[in-house]
Amino acid sequence: MSSATLPHAQHPYKVMALYKFAALPDAEALKAPLAEFCCGRGIRGTLILAPEGINGTVAGTPEAIDALADYLFAAGPFGLRLAGAEVKYSFAETAPFLRMKVRLKPEIVTLRAPQVDPNRQAGTYVEPEDWNELIARNDVVLVDTRNDYEVGLGSFRRALDPKTQSFVDFKDYVAKNLDPARDKKVAMFCTGGIRCEKASSYLLSQGFEEVFHLKGGILKYLEVIPPEESRFTGECFVFDERVSVGHGLELGSATLCRACRHPLTEADRRHPDYHDGISCPHCAGDSARHAAAAERQRQMQLAERRGDAHLGDAAAEAAAQARARKQHLAERSRRANKAP
């Protein structure tokens, strides 16, 4: 599916999600030029650089995102090291991100397993069109490598849920629940492909013989597989203000709890413990968090009444302008007081 035929391609914001395991020993030197390039074109989102590669999601005008793609994959300081990156495009009616961040980290997806190197060893890619046939086999163990709150919104039928709080926990799950002598074929999936690619490398390092992972992740599957043929149920959590997407990458129905950042289903929002912007069933007992959320909600409502921004770059710019006005008034008062 080309960018032009993606759902809502007429919307003003183009979203690019990408990752690539590639040798970037100069990641630190690449950080500032990349941030300058993005900020200069009004692009917002997060990009993570590490010696093992790049990962992130950003959004901007179609022209800006196309320029960034050229910068990353062909014309910029990365040379051709990111060529062949896993890239997915979608469109949004409103800005999915509030600010631009380029972060330097030890890993683009944190597993803390030094022996793992997807550039050297990884499982077998499975195209979305071939995924249904693979996971229908009785001799294949299907594992969702995402965290529990992501799995709670949707997953593939009969997939095992490791119930992890972070990807680092995946190693313990493997040690306790999977056995290379018993589980001869393991298929894994995640949101965009990056986590299960690294997980596949880890399983191979632990002696598992045949390891498969969904190329492009759930997002690519939802983009190209018709709903009537899909084995994915529910919605796919995404790490931006859209919260979730469904088949065809259509905007999902999930929202975020502003107190604990847990994704919320329609059933969650009908729960007695749900209070918009303040609490949800997943953080019902955290009174300190609720008090902070209530104050934040109050400040947001006040800002909305004033017509001011409350979050993101726009809020920072408004705050800077307010400080400048105060400084100007203070300077004018100082000069007036010094006048004879």
UniProtKB/TrEMBL annotation:
Residues 291-340 are annotated as: Disordered. Residues 136-230 form the Rhodanese domain. Its EC number is 1.14.-.-. Keywords: Oxidoreductase, tRNA processing. One of its GO terms (molecular function) is oxidoreductase activity, acting on paired donors, with incorporation or reduction of molecular oxygen. Residues 312-322 have a biased composition (Low complexity). InterPro entries: Rhodanese-like_dom, Rhodanese-like_dom_sf, TrhO, TRHO_N. It is an enzyme of class 1 (oxidoreductase). CDD domains: RHOD_YceA. One of its GO terms (biological process) is tRNA modification. The keyword Oxidoreductase applies. The keyword Oxidoreductase applies. It catalyses: uridine(34) in tRNA + AH2 + O2 = 5-hydroxyuridine(34) in tRNA + A + H2O. Residues 291-311 have a biased composition (Basic and acidic residues). Catalyzes oxygen-dependent 5-hydroxyuridine (ho5U) modification at position 34 in tRNAs. Belongs to the TrhO family. This is tRNA uridine(34) hydroxylase. It comes from Devosia elaeis. The gene is trhO.
